[in-house]
Amino acid sequence: MAYRLERWSKKQIRKQLQIIRGEVAPTIVLKNATYLNNARKKWLNANIWMYEDRIIYVGKEMPVKLDKTEIIDCSDRFVVPGYIEHHAHPFQLYNPQSFAEYASVRGTTTLVNDNLMLLLNSDKKKALTLIEKLDELPTTMLWWCRYDAQTEFVQEDNVFSYSNMKAWLEHPLVVQGGELTSWPKVLHGDDGILHWMQETKKHSKPIEGHFPGASEKTLTQMALLGVNSDHEAMTGEEVLMRLDMGYTTSLRHSSIRPDLPKLLEELIELGLDDFSRVLMTTDGSTPSFYEQGVMDLLIKIALEKGIPDTEAYAMATYNAARHYNLDDSLGMIAPGRIAHINILESKDKPLPISVLAKGQWVKKDGVNCYPVTKFSWADYDINPLVIDWELTEENLHFSMPLGIEMVNSVILKPYQIATDVTQTEIPDDSYECYFMMVDKKGNWLINTVIKGFANHVSGFASSFSNTGDIFIIGKNKKDMLLAFQELKKQQGGIVLVENGEVINTVELGLYGVMSVKPMEEVIKEERELTNALKERGYLFDDPIYSLLFFSSTHLPYIRVTQKGIFDVKKKTVLFPSIMR
């Protein structure tokens, strides 16, 4: 299960040795391949032998025994390791299995995944059994261990209990601690999180930070606390500051921060000529972003910006594997590594024409052949959202003086409500809407007004959120109730209502947060929803991230959390949630 030698049994290893001795035939041979050798940063020519999920030999020889061996002539092809997305959030409407398939067919055969959604919603035993089941996919599925919920969470002590954290950190499929969003707590004396950071180090696993806009002094202190990497640099200067301090630094290109072209231009101008401690990430982008590609897109951008091809591919392969101390298993085409291999038409076309994941063809000659997986989510207690309580007009009472104003897709600030919110409808000439956050179990709610979300949204309900609680937004209270009722009927998702009619829905049948549908269908649904919201006055780029981050206290300035409206800077609840 671990990604070192213990992945293979003694019997399997002995059989692999027999292939070298000519006693057993390999399963696949890539003949005459021009491949990227990451150890030398050169393109070399070799024959690559594989047996099941392992690379056995890379060199000039051909096997003695070729019984039933599939031989692929790669004379006019280029071969690189499978790509690694080291910072995946596989819960952005899609689910881990559907994203794994979609990414792998595009060459990203290893995902290092956020565990927050499982940590918040699943029993420890079920969650860890699930990640083991997911790793039976052709895609290598590795995980983080979060230290915090990045929100004010009612059951935080239960979720981040000693037994939960110990079990996650010790699991061999968990390869890092973090991302650490509540680093200010650690700096100001939270020894609970510091304890788990130290435990992470005892297991020889790196810690990833989340330090947007951090000063040199802050970054230095976090390095002393044990943090190894960060993905929040927004300028070339910030990248260099992190590299100068010894951080492994990831360049982000995501749906809300498409920064990679600018970062690379600035780094080249600043004279960076060694990218060996630089990674790249799409940072959990929303579905439609991935139509352009996954890590293949980021490699393509790097190549277009003049990064040498050996460096561009390494940032999405070898550099990531080495950072996680997994380069003996991943990120290289060399004996003993897992057989994640991409076959390219040319060096400047990182979208592969054929992909091997754990030695299986998941794409061959341009055709998706990822194995059909009937995944039984219910076996792991990942079920539709059951809402067994009612919301009535009496619950739609708005009297709070403080509202929330959207600055952009994810930043919220407070403002003083001047609109008459006792009426049943807010006029369309205002960019204000009623706003509710309701406990998914129906125990509490928060009622206020949001400014800047949209000026023509009549009724909107979503169970997609950081905590799985429900947001209801709109100008018309009757349409808001109807949106909630439709959400209840479809057992989770996103619903848009206008003039008493449902005009758009996204069904999210897992926790009310993830879809069971294939990625291509989720992309289509997300685009239709986004277009419908923009037609009704949504001003920004990414409504999915708006929903996700309404509660996220690692962002300024105020948030709507389970405990109430929260001032991020002062760490205080301004207005508490109300019990129903």
Automatic annotation (TrEMBL):
Residues 78-362 form the Amidohydrolase-related domain. InterPro entries: Adenine_deam_C, Amidohydro-rel, Metal-dep_hydrolase_composite, Metal_Hydrolase. Its EC number is 3.5.4.2. It catalyses: adenine + H2O + H(+) = hypoxanthine + NH4(+). Keywords: Hydrolase. GO terms for molecular function: adenine deaminase activity. SUPFAM superfamilies: Composite domain of metallo-dependent hydrolases, Metallo-dependent hydrolases. Residues 421-571 form the Adenine deaminase C-terminal domain. Belongs to the metallo-dependent hydrolases superfamily. Adenine deaminase family. This is adenine deaminase.
